[in-house]
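User: I'm preparing a small set of examples for a lab meeting where we compare how different chains pack in three dimensions. I only have the primary sequence for this one, and I'd like the structure in token form so I can line it up with the others. Please keep the answer compact; I'll paste it straight into my notes.
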Amino acid sequence: MLDFAVRLTAAGYKVMPADLDRLRAVGFDDVGILQITLIASWFNYVNRVADALGLSRASADSCNVNSQSAH
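Assistant: Understood. Below is the structure token output for the 71-residue chain.
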């Protein structure tokens, strides 16, 4: 699974049917493969957006955001 996620992250266009077959061989069904693909892709998307906007975990931690709304 992790090899697939890395391949998808590094060069998604290189994912081939054989990659999916390897996931099936270790017990993942099509729904599981879809979930792996969606989650890895979502993380890739979010990280690329954050990188493009110059955001980092350190900048998020330095924000004074109160998670409770004032009443």
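A couple of notes for your slides: The two ends are 46 Å apart (CA to CA). The chain has one domain: 2-54.

User: Perfect, thanks.
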